[in-house]
Amino acid sequence: MAEDHHDSEPAASGHGHNTPRGDTDTDSHALPGGVSVAEDGFQLEASETRIEPGKSSKWTYQVHDEEGNVITEFEKTHDQLAHLILVRRDLTRFQHLHPTLADDGTWSAEVTLPDPGVYRAFIDVLVDGQPTTLGVDLLSSGPAQYEDRPKTTHVAEVEGYTIELTPEQFPTRETVSIEFEVRRKDGVAHLDAYLGALGHLVALRDGDLAYLHVHPEDSNSEDGVVRFAVRFPTPGRYRLFLQAKPDGELITTSFDVEAGEH
Ligand SMILES: [Cu+2]
User: Fold this and answer.
1) How far is the CA of 262 from the centre of ligand 1 (A)?
2) Near ion ligand 1, which residues have CB within 5 Å?
3) 99 C-alpha to ligand 1 centroid (Å)
């Protein structure tokens, strides 16, 4: 039942038991998530954490409250009841899935981990107005070939589109507005809505794959530009995964950035 799964007050003030983590920013929502299986009074219980590579498997999980009760009621966030982000720990092989929820609170998704390696699964949900991202490692056995990444990327090319990221410098510990301009050879692309905005952005910190909180900002579908508010919590490298729908076609690109003084 929704009303007894945890003792929250409405989300704006956060949870009473959510202790500050040494950050001067008092908005706990501004801190990265996804580095833990348990956070903000919620715990991710995965049915399985070993998944054979290259094979489609049904993966299920539940979200429990502090008393161990299964949470069965979720609110929509970015147009969906849950977002499941899968990425290998070398920040490649990004996938964005939408699992389905059964009445008993069990979520399920058809998952294929394309190659061996350790993957991070992020569950992005909204419960009682509180956005929470929980993360668990999924192990795919076999010899893994981890990839090098570019130091920084400001322009990406995918499926005939060129996507340019601005600005080129990113301050830390403050919310910054960043934008991606999507162009095709003959001009600006028309962006269709995707998940209630003109694009979806996942920003992960290099090293621990901390999952940054990102909000879409007002954008105009005709100018080919999609904007987000992002807060980089610490100096260092991050990888941004942008998904957008130019001319009705879903594209996924990644950008490597370095935040802070350098
Ligand atoms: Cu999603």
Assistant:
1) 33
2) 80, 83
3) 9
Q: Say if pTM beats, i.e. exceeds, 0.85.
A: yes
Tell me which CATH homologous superfamily contains domain 155-259: Immunoglobulins (2.60.40.10)
CA 124 – ligand 1 centroid, Å: 8
98 alpha carbon – ligand 1 mean position (Å):
6
Break the chain into its structural domains and give their ranges: 2-140, 155-259
pLDDT, averaged per 10 consecutive residues of the chain (262 residues), comes to: 39 37 44 90 97 97 97 94 97 97 98 98 94 96 92 93 94 94 90 90 96 86 90 95 94 96 65
SS (HEC) of the chain: CHHHCCCCCCHHHCCCCCCCCCCCCCCHHHCCECCCCEECCEEEEECCCECCCCCCEEEEEEEECCCCCECCCCECECCECCEEEEEECCCCCCEEECCEECCCCCEEEEECCCCCEEEEEEEEEEECCEEEEEEEEEEECCCCCCCCCCCCCCEEEECCEEEEEECCCECCCCEEEEEEEEEECCEECCEECECCECCEEEEEECCCCCECCEEEECCCCCCCEEEEEEECCCCEEEEEEEEEEECCCCEEEEEEEEECCC
From the options 2.60.40.1930, 3.40.630.10, 3.40.50.10490, 1.10.3720.10, give the CATH code of 2-140. 2.60.40.1930
